């Protein structure tokens, strides 16, 4: 990248979160006309892209797999904040499924959309995408366990009518999810960190990204990047809250199911992960892409469910977590196909296409259940 392009990137990634935050402050609590909603949406996109850049700055400093963890947690903070703010806005039964719909959409997007797209990019570039089966397999097992405990079991428990947990069951699920997430992070970053590092490909050794040839950012640049990352996250949460009424009205006007709102929310907050994962796959670092995808799914469940459980103390209305039969089938299909993809440690164009077809089925059935 030329020096002028680098300066331009630094400028917009610095001012983007600031402008988005200022727009959030000016628009908060107001009824926005159509053109204002468009401007807020543009600020939201700028804040998301800036968040990706600053997360990568911090990641370049701390290295893998800490870098993937930084972005995964950052994106999940966006998701949790957005879900809680939407549910706190009221709506009773209307918002009772936001947490379930958003978390399940995040699982489908990460495990099928991001994984499938990354495999497609990596396979088109190198014919075969290579990754570490031990680390990816452990991450996938964690995703499946968390998804089953929090999204499937509520449909079968009998202590509370409907697809809901009782208070005790919700507390158990929240604590279990948080503990399992903590164990995963410990294994990923300390106990078995080598399981989550990019693997050697043929005789070329471990692939290097373009950023690894550059000097790591200084302490000042890292702290500045972290501060701008946090500012960008606040701007994303706030601006997404501002445009959410327009999304809800659009979904209602189009006669689409309410679950589509959760899908749109998940697509918005996972855009940084998608961009970062595809970029890593293009650089022949498929393990980093899987770290981002599965790490985001784990964080989405392991952090969102405890946060929603805590927020349910003061939030009014029911909290529906149990999936319906169609979504359960998609979850089981995702688990089986993902296991067959991960176990060999190598994947081709076919596996990428299979995952993307499952993701397409999820989107279509969300629009036309």
TrEMBL record:
Domain Sodium/calcium exchanger membrane region: 37-189, 226-367
InterPro entries linked: Alkaline_pH_Ca-Antiporter (IPR052946), NaCa_Exmemb (IPR004837), NCX_ion-bd_dom_sf (IPR044880)
Regions crossing the membrane: 12-29, 35-54, 66-90, 102-124, 136-156, 168-187, 223-242, 254-271, 292-315, 321-342, 349-367
Pfam family, any one: Na_Ca_ex
Location (main, coarse): membrane
Membrane topology classification: Multi-pass membrane protein
Location within or outside the cell: Membrane
Keywords: Membrane, Transmembrane, Transmembrane helix
Record's protein name: Calcium:proton antiporter
């Amino acid at each position: 990248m030329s020096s002028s392009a680098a300066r331009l990137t630094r400028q917009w990634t610095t001012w983007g979160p600031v402008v988005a935050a200022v727009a959030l402050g000016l628009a908060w609590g107001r009824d926005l006309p159509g053109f204002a909603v468009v401007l807020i949406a543009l600020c939201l996109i700028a804040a998301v892209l800036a968040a990706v850049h600053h997360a990568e700055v911090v990641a370049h400093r701390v290295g893998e797999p800490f870098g993937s963890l930084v972005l995964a947690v950052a994106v999940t903070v966006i998701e949790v904040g957005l879900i809680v703010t939407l549910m706190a806005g009221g709506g009773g039964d209307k918002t009772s499924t936001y947490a379930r719909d958003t978390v399940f959409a995040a699982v489908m997007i990460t495990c099928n959309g991001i994984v499938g797209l990354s495999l497609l990019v990596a396979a088109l570039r190198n014919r075969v995408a290579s990754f570490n089966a031990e680390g990816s397999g452990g991450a996938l097992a964690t995703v499946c366990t968390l998804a089953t405990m929090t999204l499937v079991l509520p449909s079968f428990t009998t202590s509370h009518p409907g697809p809901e947990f009782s208070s005790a069951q919700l507390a158990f699920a929240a604590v279990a999810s948080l503990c399992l997430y903590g164990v995963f992070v410990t294994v990923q970053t300390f106990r078995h960190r080598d399981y989550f590092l990019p693997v050697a490909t043929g005789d070329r050794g471990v692939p290097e990204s373009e950023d690894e040839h550059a000097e790591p950012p200084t302490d000042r640049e890292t702290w500045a990047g972290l501060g701008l990352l946090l500012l960008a996250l606040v701007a994303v949460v706030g601006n997404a809250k501002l445009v959410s009424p327009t999304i809800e009205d659009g979904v209602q006007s189009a006669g689409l199911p309410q679950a589509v709102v959760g899908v749109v929310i998940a697509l918005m907050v996972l855009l940084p992960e998608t961009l970062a994962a595809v970029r890593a796959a293009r650089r022949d670092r498929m393990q980093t892409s899987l770290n981002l995808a599965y790490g985001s799914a784990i964080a989405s469940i392991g952090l969102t469910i405890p946060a929603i459980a805590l927020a349910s103390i003061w939030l009014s209305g029911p909290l529906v977590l149990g999936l319906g039969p169609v979504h359960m089938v998609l979850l089981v299909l995702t688990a089986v196909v993902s296991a067959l993809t991960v176990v060999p440690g190598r994947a081709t164009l076919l596996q990428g296409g299979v995952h993307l077809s499952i993701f397409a089925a999820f989107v279509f059935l969300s629009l036309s259940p």
